[in-house]
Amino acid sequence: MAGRCAHRGAAPRGGLARTRSRGGGGRAALGSGDRGHRALATGTLAGVRPLGARRGGAALVGIRPRWLPARASLARRPAGLLESAAVSAIGVGVDLVEVARVSGIIRDKGSRVFARLLTLAERQYCESRPDPATHVAVRLAAKEAVYKALQGSAAARGIGWREIEVTRTADGRPNVTLTGVAAARAHELGVQRVLLSLSHTHEAAVAVAVLESA
Questions:
Q1: What CATH number did the domain enclosing 142 receive?
Q2: Closest Cα partner for 38 from 172, 193, 203, 128?
């Protein structure tokens, strides 16, 4: 998470003092408060139309494995669950942040950490929680995972922490919004969606980001 230069006024990624592997900039916080929280997020880009439902995949309904007894039946699955889609993953990023390290940084540097690494919405959410360090760790892991997925050019190294925002939708799912250099890089790559999978315990937060194109 450490060792990255920030874009313009964004906080340098190195400011997180190796909270995990790379140390990153201004990303949004996720966190549901429960240990082991897992979520799947769909990122949004300004001016990019969300992908609609995809069709045309080969359905596996009605196919009976040869090893099943004659009278055995297959559990029904939601329509489209096993259908393939014409989607391409063009970038993947993974990151893990130790909650104890984030707690130490907050203890040493105070609220300045929130201002440098989080957007206003992220900061307000984290500060409203009884355990802000956990939620900050989740958001930093998410930001760093997306940052890694967007890499591949000199300009992309300048993506700031606050240019990747992680918020929650009305139904509780995390959502990724890209701005500035991050949004420009996503447009350059042809990104249509940012999928984000998150999980955390009282010890660490982990995030996996996948960039999708049509």
A1: 3.90.470.20
A2: 172
Residue 134 domain flag: yes
- Answer yes or no: are the C-beta atoms of 158 and 181 closer than 8 Å: yes
- Amino acid, single-letter form, for residue 174: P
The total domain count for the chain is 1
pTM (two decimals): 0.64
Residue 42 resides in a domain: yes
Q: Is residue 55 part of a domain?
A: no
Does residue 193 contact residue 175 with C-beta atoms inside 8 Å?
A: no
Give 139-204 as a DSSP string: HHHHHHHHHHHT-SSTGGGG--GGGEEEEE-TTS-EEEEE-HHHHHHHHHHT--EEEEEEEE-SSE
What does the chain come to in residues? 214
Find all residues with CB under 8 Å of 121, minimum gap 6, and list them.
Answer: 28, 165, 167
Q: If the chain, 214 residues long, is cut into consecutive pieces of 10 residues, what is the mean pLDDT of each piece?
A: 44 47 40 40 44 38 44 47 64 97 92 89 92 95 97 94 92 89 96 93 96 88
pLDDT value at residue 174:
81
**Amino acid type, 93:** G
DSSP state letter for 59: P
**Does any domain span residue 56?**
no
Strands across the sheet containing 164-168: 44-45, 174-178, 164-168
